[in-house]
Amino acid sequence: MMAIKMPGKKQSPEEFISGATAAAPSPAPREEYPWHQPMVRDDLRVQLNAKLPERLMVKVDWLARRLGVKKQDMIETALQEWAQARLREMGIEDE
Cα separation of 12 and 20, whole Å? Predict the structure, then answer.
């Protein structure tokens, strides 16, 4: 024969709540970054218009001629390196 366990003292709401255990937190959803959207394409070129200091642009022009590279390629490389460095500082690894 099985013994029947009688309930003990009735718990107060505070005791009941303090005895409860929370469910394991679900993992945080991976943040989706705008550049991962399927509509973003690597083959699409976007025009950038920016006002930059004349002295800087004279240096860029001189370097482009001296190195035989396009200013567009120089600026793209510089922006890519800057963006990757900032993302790494934020703990975001980009493929």
Answer: 13
